[in-house]
Amino acid sequence: MAFDPGILRPHVPALLVGLVDTFWLCASSAVLACLLGIVLVVLRRMGPRPLAVLIDAYIAVTLALPLLVLLYVSFYVLPDFGLLLPAPLVGVLTLAIYYAPYIAQVIQAAIDGLPRGTVEAAVAIGMPPLAIARRIVAPQALPLLLPTMTGLGIGLFKDSALLSVISVHEFMFAAKSVVAETYAPLEVYCMVALVYWAATGLLHALTRRWEQRIAIAHGVQSHGISSSSNASTP
């Protein structure tokens, strides 16, 4: 079979639109996942015991399920209970719900790794909790968070390809549409693999540089996690 990448030329605009949609979906999911992860950590540490138990149960269940199962449940099962949402919104919410427990665990581990004396000293002088979090905890925890958060962000970007199974118009969905029109899966999926490889490599390089700058600024040695490893991704 001859390899003819020129067959993709008429479909480049549609593929670019799908790629842009993927970036928007991933950015929205990442922001929501970070916010939900922070909320989980705060409620788990400061909320009543029954609420902490519920949060632990949610985290345990979410970590035990594949993302594809959550997508199917959200898109095909919830409408039976009267909850019918647009496919892109289902995709964003499911990615956020799936990645929030991982982010919560990373934040929790970073906080537990901080020197206790600094926080205790801030409490002793009467500093309010919000100021402690913003001026003491966040600057020290950020260098510890970034390597693993980078891996999670790359994992979220790659997992966004699964949204095509619920008909979300993103990059993989656009690629499948091109395959249906051209009957050229070799050329299309080779191009898809190259785009994902380039995008994840760029994301890792940018966050790696940011991580190094923050580590130098705070005097913390940086130990980045390569995007090729799955140590920090689900």
TrEMBL record:
<feature type="transmembrane region" description="Helical">
    <location>
        <begin position="144"/>
        <end position="166"/>
    </location>
</feature>
<feature type="transmembrane region" description="Helical">
    <location>
        <begin position="81"/>
        <end position="100"/>
    </location>
</feature>
<dbReference type="InterPro" id="IPR000515">
    <property type="entry name" value="MetI-like"/>
</dbReference>
<keyword id="KW-0029">Amino-acid transport</keyword>
<dbReference type="InterPro" id="IPR035906">
    <property type="entry name" value="MetI-like_sf"/>
</dbReference>
<feature type="transmembrane region" description="Helical">
    <location>
        <begin position="22"/>
        <end position="43"/>
    </location>
</feature>
<keyword id="KW-1003">Cell membrane</keyword>
<keyword id="KW-0472">Membrane</keyword>
<feature type="transmembrane region" description="Helical">
    <location>
        <begin position="55"/>
        <end position="75"/>
    </location>
</feature>
<feature type="transmembrane region" description="Helical">
    <location>
        <begin position="186"/>
        <end position="206"/>
    </location>
</feature>
<dbReference type="InterPro" id="IPR043429">
    <property type="entry name" value="ArtM/GltK/GlnP/TcyL/YhdX-like"/>
</dbReference>
<feature type="domain" description="ABC transmembrane type-1">
    <location>
        <begin position="19"/>
        <end position="207"/>
    </location>
</feature>
<protein>
    <submittedName>
        <fullName>Polar amino acid transport system permease protein</fullName>
    </submittedName>
</protein>
<keyword id="KW-0813">Transport</keyword>
<keyword id="KW-0812">Transmembrane</keyword>
<keyword id="KW-1133">Transmembrane helix</keyword>
<comment type="similarity">
    <text>Belongs to the binding-protein-dependent transport system permease family. HisMQ subfamily.</text>
</comment>
<dbReference type="InterPro" id="IPR010065">
    <property type="entry name" value="AA_ABC_transptr_permease_3TM"/>
</dbReference>
<dbReference type="Pfam" id="PF00528">
    <property type="entry name" value="BPD_transp_1"/>
</dbReference>
